[in-house]
Amino acid sequence: MIDAPQTTAPVPLPWLADPLRAALETQRAHALLIHGPQGVGQFEMALTLAQAWLCESPPSQSTRPCGHCASCRLVQARSHPDLMVLVPEALREALGWSTDDAGEEGGSSKGETSGKRKPSKDIRVDEVRRIVSFAQTTAARAHGKVVVVFPAERMNGISANALLKTLEEPPGNLRFVLAGASADALLPTIRSRCQAVRLDLPEPTVAAAWLQAQGVMQPEVLLAAAGGQPEEALSWFREGLDARAWLALPEQLARGDAAGLTAWPLSRVIDMLFKVCHDAMRAAVGAAPRYFPFGLINGRASIEELTRWYREIGRVARHAEHPWQAALTIELLVTQAHTALTVPKSTTAVLRVR
Ligand SMILES: [Zn+2]
Hints:
CATH topology of the largest domain: Rossmann fold
CATH superfamily of the largest domain: P-loop containing nucleotide triphosphate hydrolases
Bound molecules: zinc ion
Low-confidence stretches: 1-8, 100-115, 348-354
Number of strands: 5
Mean pLDDT: 86
Distance between the termini: 50 Å
Order of helices and strands: HEHHEHHHHEHEHEHHHHHHH
Oligomer: single chain
Largest sheet: 5 strands, parallel
Radius of gyration: 23 Å
């Protein structure tokens, strides 16, 4: 367990306290790139950094962000005039930036977002142009301006290029925090203009305690299921996955039972199947599992069958954005799971109907 630092405003995620303090002490660049495995709090870190930079409490009296000055309150209310947060439309609601941000700068209006067009998963070039206009305005308060872009890798080439010049020579007292899962997915020209701050997976005990505080039962099970990424584990839990269902999954697949799985989005099911397959392969070669407790998946399955299943999941995954007949696809994948998990290593050893 990590105790919350006493003089700071509470950080949204306990494992961010140390990286935040380090970044505030050492990072002087006008553009930072926060990256690391998905689901460890890149967005929260970016926003807290922005809040710290804009905080108006005297540094001698409080560690930043103080959490109670006028500026901090404006950030918390999502209405700071000198903070611009750019996230794809499709993520705005989940991140709590569905209203003020889009409305104020006169970009894509709410009506447009909730209308017939599907919310974009990308950061579009017209949104990046809003940054350029924002950069040219005078700061409303005393501590400069901050732009947060998340996930930065959702800028396509055109969007990224539109940002380059402002990112390189931001006018006035403007700072950038780009945040995302994958620094490699960014244009090298963007990467090279930012100072990188890496976040790592939190200690499992810290992450599990946080999950428990969010109401997750048996948090260590879902944390392992999510590959150690606590925000991912929480989002699975909120979407209806509990530890019991996760622990029952290998056995359910071995029975070829798709019940319950067809209710999940295809991309989630694919992720789950990949993980079962991954651990079954590890068990088959005598290695320790990663996503399931030791011993839950036996090592008797045929590695050839598992490899075939793995390739098939991968093939479906490449088209998962266009889930025609998602339920049928899931049923097919579960049938393949049944075969892969039950055909033993030596087919001569046990008679089994393929
Ligand atoms: Zn403050």
